[in-house]
Predict the 3D structure of the following.
Amino acid sequence: MALPSINLDRLRTDLLTLGRIGHTDTGGVSRLAFTDPDMEARRWLMRRIEESGGRARLDGAGNVLGRWFEGNHPAVVLGSHIDSVVDGGLFDGTLGVLAGLECARAILDSELRPRRPLELVAFADEEGRFGGMFGVQAYCGMVTPDWLENAADPEGVKLSDAMRSHGLEPLQALNAARRPEDVFAFLELHIEQGPVLEAEKRRIGVVEGISGIFKWVVHLVGKANHAGTSPMHLRSDAFSGLASFAHEIPRILEEEGSPGSRLTIGKVELLPGHPHTVPGEAVFSLVGRDIEPDTLRGLADACTRVLGAIARRKGLHFEYRELSWLEPRRCHPDVIQAFVRAARGLDEDPLLMPSGAGHDTQFMAEFTRAGMIFVPSVGGVSHAPDELTHWADVEIGAQVLLRAVTEFLC
Ligand SMILES: [Zn+2]
C-alpha cells in the first residue's frame, strides 16, 4: 500500500490564502488574538476543515478543533496556532495548523484506514496578547476563573471583554478542558524562528525539550552624585556594577550552563539618568533559559551569587524580583523517536535540538506524550514580515509530520 503523501500545491494555497487575512502593507500579517482578523481566520479554517470532510467546532476558549476518522480510541492531535504578533510573518504557527489539515486530507486521499481519530487544534492566543498560550492552557485545564476575569492586554483591554465582543462567554473557556485519556499524542510542526538549522544545513530539527525561562527585574542601588566632584574611587556607581555583572555572564554560562543556556540583559534603565550625574541606580531585566531544570536553577543561583559579590565589592545594594519562572519541558521519547524515524525514512538527517522559544507543545507535554519538529527559517528571521521558509522545506516538514502521525494513527 502506498504511503499517503502531502500535496504541496494545496498546502501552499492554504498558507497564502490565510496570509491574506489580516495582511499588512509591509507584506506581513497582524492577527492578534480575539481581533476581527483572528476570528475571521478561525472561521475560514473551520470552513476548510469541513470542506475536507472533517467536523469543525470552536471550543469555549476560541480554539478551533477539527476531527476526522471517528472512533472510541483516544485521538492523535496535531496543532499549533494561527494568531500572530503585530506585523508578523506568514509561517509562524500557521504552518503547523495547515500542515495538520493537509495531513488529514492526504490520509483521506490514501487507502489508509486509521484506527484512531485525528484531531487538529488551532490554539487561541499563543502569541500572548493576554499573557500567552491561553488556548492550550484552557485545553489542558490549567485556566482558572480568576485568571479569566483579570487577564488584560498591554492596552488594558480585558480578555473577557475581547471574548464577549466576538460572542464568546469567557467562563466557557473552563469547558475547553480535555481529559488526558482522550488524547493519545500531540505533534506540532513549527518554523525554527532561529538560525541553527540553516547554519547546520539541516532541514528537520527534532525538538528534545523546550527551554524553561526565568525572568527577573534586578535593582543595583548605589549613590547618585555630581560627576565632576565625585572622585572615581569614592563613587557607588550602579552602572559600574551592572557592567561588571554583564562581563561575568560568559563565565557564569561556562561554569553553570549547557550549550543551550542563555542569559540576557534586554532592558536597562539608569537613574537618575543625567549625563553629569553618577548613576545611583541601575534597573535591568535578566532572563535565563535552559532545557534542564537543574541547570536553570544553577544559572539562577550563580547570578544571585555573582550579583551579591559585585554589590559588596562596589558598595552597592542589590535586590531582585522574580516576575516568572517557567519550568523546562521535555518532549516525549515516543514522539521524538517517531519524528526521527519519519525523517530518516525520507532521507533526511534530523538535528536533535532544544527550543529556545515557547510553544504550545510546552503545555501539551505536561498533558500527554507530546513533541515537535522545526523546519528552517531563512536568515533565522521570525515575528517579522520577511519571515520565510522555503517551499521545499515546508513540504519536507509536512511530509515528516504526516509519516509520524500515520505511525500513531495506525
Ligand atoms: Zn509560533
